[in-house]
Design a protein that fits this description.
Blueprint: H1 4-17, H2 19-22, H3 25-30, E1 34-37, E2 44-47, H4 57-60, H5 76-87, E3 93-94, H6 121-124, E4 133-141, E5 158-169, H7 175-189, E6 197-206, E7 209-218, E8 221-234, E9 237-251, H8 252-260, H9 265-269, H10 271-281, H11 287-293, H12 308-318, H13 323-351, H14 360-378, H15 385-396, H16 402-406, H17 411-436, E10 441-442, H18 444-454, H19 458-466, E11 471-472, H20 478-485, E12 511-512, E13 522-531, E14 534-537, E15 539-540, E16 554-556, E17 559-567, E18 570-575, E19 586-591, H21 593-617, E20 623-628, E21 633-638, H22 645-660, E22 666-671, H23 672-679, E23 693-699, E24 703-706, E25 721-730, E26 733-740, H24 742-761, H25 769-785, H26 805-813, H27 820-836
Parallel strand pairs: 3-4, 10-11, 12-15
Antiparallel strand pairs: 1-2, 2-6, 4-5, 5-9, 6-7, 7-8, 8-9, 13-14, 13-19, 14-18, 16-17, 16-19, 17-18, 20-21, 21-26, 22-23, 23-24, 25-26
Length: 837
Amino acid sequence: MISDKEFKKIFRKEASKNYKKYFPVKALEREGFKRQQCKKCGKFFWSIHEREVCGDPECTGSYGFIGQQNGPQLSFPEVWLEFSKLLEPKGYVPIKRYPVVARWNPSVEFTIASITDFQPYVVSGEVEPLHRMLTVPQICLRFNDIDSVGLTGRHYTGFTMIGQHAFVPKNEYNQEKYFLDYLSWFTEGMKLKKEDLVIHEDAWAGGGNVGACLEFFSKGLEIGNQVYMFFERKGGELKELDIKVLDMGMGQERVAWFLSGKATSYEVVMPSVINYLFEVSGVKRDEDILKKFVPLSGLLDLDELENSESAWKTIADKINVDVDTLKSVVLPVKKIYAIADHSRTLLYALTDGALPSNVGGGYNLRVLFRKTMDFANELKINLDWETLFRLHSEDLKDMYPEFIESYKEILKIIEVEKRKYFENKKRASSILVRFLQGKQNVSEDELIKLYDTYGITPEEVKSEAEKRNIKVSVSDNFYSKISELHENKQQETQTRTEKHVEFGKELPETNRLYFDDFGLTEFDSVVLAIKDNFVVLESTAFYPTSGGQLHDIGTINGIKVVDVFKQGNIIVHELEEKPNFNVNDIVHGSIDVERRIILSQMHTAAHILNGASKRVLGRHVWQAGAAKTLEKARLDITHYDSLSDEEVQAIEDLANEIIKKDLPVNKYFMDRVLAENKFGMTIYQGGAVPGKKIRIVEIPNFDVEACGGTHLNNTSQAELIKIIKTSKIQDGVVRIEFVAGKKAIELVEKNEKIVEELSKLLNCEKEQVPSRAKELFELWKTVVKKKKPIEVFELKSNETFEGDILKETARILKTQPEHVIKTVNRFINDIKKVLNK
């Protein structure tokens, strides 16, 4: 499949060839801009005056705005406030940012641009936007430029993209207006002359969409770009969108930097953190060299360079220093800036519910954390993460007050990451020595594997390899490559084999009766289609396997229903034998009531447990997967560590407290955009949900999710929830196995019998079972393992325990509850055998 990057190049040629079709040419010409072609890179651009090169610093040779004020002095938050104020009278409604974790968008894991907020459903025209013209200060995460952060003065892994957007029918799309509205920001907001602007023709591809694009440069810096999104992309094919879309994205950090004229954007955007880091590190800035370097630093865009050493030499020659001296001045400062950027990105991501891990986008966060710690170690900084997060939050509070409220909560995540980081470092030395034995060179692929598996950095490998005269090959954009390897979103796949039946005609969407009442188990409906043993009804109360919940069973006109599954918008019923009815007949459906109740109890219990987990563990908890069967259910949640016994008990206790409160379980359909606006993106616990309208399942003031499953009418109908066990199934994901309702009551009764039997075996009261089990375990280790003699086999402990006796006994004996009696009998028999000898 062609990548977005490659497709962008293809469409750029098309747009430049037919530029009058794709760009607001008349407006450009009326404003005095002339179309020209860069003699260096060949790109087409527009400017007021004739010029030989475009506005890119690689063609101009340097930034031209540094060292002078270039307009009104606006702080980072003030840029957004002024921009939104200027465009609001022109019809653009300012809205709040979306989370950086794009759970509503199935095409990406993180929000990579402001348009991501509206993909795919608003952009495709399937869903109406909240406002047809709007602006948004969207925080975005991108990891492809990670190696350039701190070098160029403009690159970030986490940044704010100010979006100017319009979603309108084709006949209302006003490309000239959108261009002129944005142009007014430069002339009225930033107070620039049109002569200061160079506007590039370009293209954009991403998130499944493609369009022509204008990039706005001034004095060597790209400030923003305006995409005129016309197409939906499927593979190599383009389909015209049902609505036309405006997608302007402008880096807020760049605007504040440009206006200030300061050496880099980092001092302007993160002033408190930068000052703090220079103070605690003791890094001294050689202002003379840095002053000359910064205007040329745009040449070190490592993602675009094939040979960074030649770029370093070009810069060094221009400012009359040798390369080693230049690097010795620049690289420590680069590390300060990178620490500031990476820690701010972690603040953004962790606050919005992402977690560092070894898979998917979480791995990119772990790379950021490791690099931050590595840079801090190299600069001999003992990083105070609480101070870093507090200073970032204070700098951002006028725009994003949510970080002030949440930064202390995410410190627990950082502590766990620090523990893992130092554990890796302890193992790294011996691993590296073994790895290098007998080697003459180390390839970049081997370096990637070392970093991926053990967290060993290329710098550590090079340091050890130099002692052994081993050659190490590593590119300057090493960490960008690492990020690319992990950018594919990890999605849970169903083990069920999908069926598909051809009915030979297009069928209308099935009316789903189970949405309204889980207790509806008898119904009549018209038969729409029959193929062999497969039947489609006009309406059905049979639930199809989906969302981790098993399908219903029962009968249609007395014939057993053995499977139910979704096929597009229809629901297909598989019968045990060929039907005794025909198309257009009215048939009677009857659902297995006990199975429906058990599955509904399990599903509602999963929502209750999810809400309880968030309250006990923190707002970072999201559902990562779920399954509900007749015997038990599981809920996979995002969490940075294994659950302690105390945490498990607290979750279970809170869940059962919610059951006792007899809260209503409200189920209703809402317009997607209205639901997102009312409840936020936490409704997407099970991932992105398609459709203009979505079904909301709400336990008031406790849990709200978009869900299509069968649910109880109130929490008391769940009766009881018992957590069977928890386990860490992958880095950053914990599995909670549980039972609810009838199955939970059966488990409690079963466990009571086990405890009674244990009290007889151990000759004690039930409350004394855990202490007696502990005494037995210690005696078994003494007699059987250590082979120390005892005179009498007697258990005397009378200490009582309050709580789940069986669970505590299983914990003491290091076994599962169902194996406790077997384990106790084994210990007793082992001791008796030794004594008999």
